[in-house]
Design a protein that fits this description.
Helix 7 crosses helix 8 (209-216). By secondary structure, the protein is of the alpha/beta class. It has two domains: 2-141, 3-Layer(aba) Sandwich (Alpha/beta knot), CATH 3.40.1280; 161-216, Trp Operon Repressor, Chain A, CATH 1.10.1270.20. A hairpin with a 2-residue loop joins strand 6 and strand 7. 36% of the residues lie in helices and 13% in strands. The chain is elongated. It is built from eight helices and seven strands. The strands form three sheets. A three-stranded parallel β-sheet has the order 4-3-5, covered by helices on one side. Strands 1-2 form a two-stranded antiparallel ribbon. It has helices spanning 2-5, 9-16, 53-66, 84-90, 108-113, 130-141, 189-207, 209-216, and strands spanning 39-40, 50-51, 71-81, 96-100, 117-120, 174-175, 178-179.
Length: 217
């Protein structure tokens, strides 16, 4: 799953430019069970399967012997909601471990003993933490200097300044009577900035008024 996603587009270029290094570790490689089991039934008779603490402990402990980590992040629906500000902060870290749970998650002692931060990408449940981990990596990587070209700077993305991005246009300036706003063709950078900010505020007001409340604070 990871190799396919990380072999394309921005992540691929980031790796080729040596701006980021990604290592994928299969928890099954750390299982001491002859069948390489990494989960079991939960105590208490609840439904589902829970990932075992031992192989996760062995994996994280091995990695920590090799280098210092700034965070051990567990992707979980009941974690703190992921935001652009979180991505900005994590992009400043040198090394991060991202732990992906599966089905009912991991033994609670994993969270108590090893995890330093728990992150959710939204109020919904997926079969595992793999897809959320990919989202996390992509959001963090694109902020790292040198990953994006100047014309696709992450600084102009939605949420970077607490607002949604303004509308964007490209050629042709007139498509079947639908015209690009004149201000964008004026070449007047001051007027364009003023127009963009006005559009950001209006779009945020319409679509995400909760963000506008935070922006005004």
């Amino acid at each position: 799953m990871f190799e396919n996603v990380f072999s394309h587009s921005i992540i691929k270029r980031a790796k080729e430019r040596e701006k980021i290094t990604l290592r994928i570790h299969n928890i099954r490689d750390y299982s001491l069970d002859k069948h390489k089991r990494v989960d079991d039934y939960p105590f208490g008779g609840q439904a589902g399967m829970v990932m075992l603490i031992e192989p996760i402990d062995l994996c994280i402990s091995k990695l920590k012997k090799e280098r210092k980590y700034d965070a051990v992040i567990f992707m979980t629906p009941d974690g703190t909601t992921f935001t652009q500000q979180t991505a900005n902060r994590l992009s400043m870290y040198e090394n991060i471990i991202i732990l992906c749970g599966h089905y009912k998650g991991v033994d609670e002692r994993v969270r108590e003993l090893f995890v330093t931060e728990e992150i959710s990408i939204g109020d919904f449940v997926l079969s595992g933490g793999e897809l959320p981990a990919m989202v996390l990596v992509d959001a963090i990587a694109r902020i790292i200097p040198g990953v994006l070209n100047d014309e696709t700077s992450a600084l102009s993305d939605s949420f970077q300044d607490g607002l949604l991005s303004p509308p964007v246009y490209t050629r042709p300036a007139n498509y079947q009577g639908h015209k690009v706003p004149e201000v964008l063709l004026s070449g007047n950078s001051k007027l364009i900035e003023e127009w963009s900010l006005k559009q950001q505020i209006e779009r945020t007001k319409q679509r995400r008024p909760d963000l506008l409340d935070k922006f005004n604070q």
